[in-house]
């Protein structure tokens, strides 16, 4: 068996540098919240494949569902030969997503595809071109996804020009000096200076920004967006790709707001590690495009759909939304305790924030108050050396986000929190 270093040498020679890779080891196997590399070292996974594994690695129920489907067929292309489990999953998603209105769901393969298709649906239904997104947003790496994304490095560097009729407004972030009132003022100014609201098809927003730093959309802002959209005939798209499926302590983050979006994008933890995404929305809006206007060769792949049906059962049976709240409290208590026993660390902590188990800690320089990506990287590196995978995020790279599986064993979480404390104290 090749060593990690040998595989890295082969990787560097065979694959492009544009596919950035965080870890210097190669996976051999994984179970629930743990990964073992090809040299036998164990890691605790606080990344979950970037929020894909809310139900953990290889949950037995999901593995069984995939195996059962594998015995029947792997692919027919749903648009050519349909199958019942696609319809079954669509019915369940329609029922579980916010709102009691009539809904329809279409499945795709990746989160970026879901976003692209949500834009297509919005434009088709409204007959308008404009889309408004927010600073700090992440909506994918396709051309439209990059256009909507509000973070330049590394996602947009060298890839322009981007699709037109996409506009950005500041995201409300009190820590960085943008109040709800400021953000609404900027949005209204956008309607005066860049695009009239009657040309805007949709406003797209993450209830909790993912790559942007787990910044939580204020309730007042989300409610104001709903009012603005209703006033001008604009659709509200909630991007729940990272925040969905119990991560925030509710099945979907929009349940924290009392606001019903017109369209929602879903992916990541929908299928427990299998590639599946979707757009769900008001039935009349979803029916805007003509037959053949939506789809994709692998869209709604049978193995992935079977996995997703099992994921929904696991979330309900194991009460993962409630568990997200309990685990998130343990994490935030530990983060605050780590800061309290170290005055120097406490001065570096700008904020601990999030819903449920979608928690982040942001660091700033105690002297200047500026974002501190260097300290953030040190914490991440020390944790990795000690066997704990952490992800950074934020426009300035000064945020650590925590994405452990919601099925993580209690003793493994305790071990991980000990490593995290050590990393914070010694960085």
TrEMBL record:
Q: Which cofactor does it need?
A: pyridoxal 5'-phosphate
Q: Which Gene3D superfamilies match?
A: Aspartate Aminotransferase, domain 1, Type I PLP-dependent aspartate aminotransferase-like (Major domain)
Give the enzyme's EC designation: 2.6.1.19
State one Pfam family annotation. Answer: Aminotran_3
State the Gene Ontology BP annotations: gamma-aminobutyric acid metabolic process
Q: What CDD domains has UniProt attached to this entry?
A: OAT_like (cd00610)
- Alphabetically ordered keywords of this record: Aminotransferase, Pyridoxal phosphate, Transferase
The answer to whether keyword Phosphoprotein applies is no
Among the GO molecular function terms of this UniProt record, one is: pyridoxal phosphate binding
Q: What class of enzyme is it?
A: transferase
**UniProt-listed NCBIfam families:** GABAtrnsam
In the record, the note on similarity to other proteins reads: Belongs to the class-III pyridoxal-phosphate-dependent aminotransferase family.
Which named protein is this? 4-aminobutyrate--2-oxoglutarate transaminase
